[in-house]
Amino acid sequence: MGDDDPTPEQLAAVERFLDAGARETEAVIAKLYGPLPSWFPQPALLHVRQAIDSLRDAEQSDEQILEVVKQERAGTLQVPGTARDSVGFYRSANYLAHVQWALEQSPERALTELAGADAAWAWQARRRQREFSRKGNEAKQEQADEHVQNWLAIGLLLRKQHPNASDRWLADRIAVRSGDKASTIRAALQPEMPLAVLRREPQKNG
Q1: CA-CA distance, 123 to 127, in Å (whole number)?
Q2: What is the pTM of this model?
Q3: Closest C-alpha among 82, 83, 103 to residue 33
Q4: pLDDT grade, residue 18 (50/70/90)?
Q5: Per-residue confidence (pLDDT) for residue 12, from 0 to 100
C-alpha cells in the first residue's frame, strides 16, 4: 500500500458517509411520494435521487426540499441565493414535482410520463397476463369443485348401497357414472382429500 492509498479506516469512514447520505435521500423520497409502487421505473428513481442531491448541493435541508417541490407545483418557486446553478436547481425541483404529479395519475399515465409509452404498454401487457392467469385459475378451481360435488353425490349413494365395497371399486364406479378418470377420483379418495368421507370404514375383528 503506497503512502497516498487510503487506509481501511478511511475507506470505512467514506462508506459510512455514503450509506448515511443514501438513507437520508430515501427518507426524502418517502416524504415526497410515500411508498413507491413496484412498477416505478428504475431510471426515474435514479433521476429522483440525483435531483435531491442537486438541491442538497444548494444547501437545502430535507424540509426545505419538500417546500421547494410544493412551491414548484404551485408555480411560486424562487431559486435561493445558495444555488450555484439556478437552472439546474429549477430543473431538479421541476422533475421532483413532476414525479409527484405523475404518481397521482393512473399507473399507465405515470409510466408514460416517467418512462415513455413503451414502458406503459409493457406494464399493461403484464397486468393483462396476470389477470388472465388469475381468471383462468379461478375457472379451473370452480370446475374442480363442481366435479367433486358430482363425485360426492354419486359416491354417497353407492357407498350406502355397497358399504363394504373397496375404495378402488367405488372410484371405478364413480368414474363410469361421471365420465371422469378413475385415477383422479382414486386420488381424491385418499385421507385428507375431498372424497375421504367416502372411504370404506375399517372392518372390525370379531
Answers
A1: 6
A2: 0.53
A3: 103
A4: very low
A5: 54
Pick from 99, 100, 104, 197: nearest CA to 156:
197
Q: Which of 95, 87, 88 is nearest to 48 (CA)?
A: 95
Confirm if 96 and 32 have CB atoms less than 8 A apart. Answer: yes
- Which three cell numbers mark 38? 413496484
pLDDT at 98: 92
Q: Which three cell numbers stand for residue 86?
A: 439556478
- What gap in Å lies between CA 164 and CA 203, rounded to an integer? 8
Alpha carbon distance 19, 182 (integer Å): 62
CA atoms within 13 A on the CB side of 129: 6
Q: Is the pLDDT reported for residue 21 higher than 60?
A: no
DSSP structure string for 1-62: --TTSPPHHHHHHHHHHHHHHHHHHHHHHHHHHSSPPTT--HHHHHHHHHHHHHHHHTT--H
CA–CA gap between residue 104 and residue 191 (Å, rounded): 52
CA atoms in the 13 A half-sphere facing the CB of 130: 6
Q: How confident is the model at residue 157 (pLDDT cuts 50, 70, 90)?
A: confident
Side chain identity at 85, as an amino acid letter? D
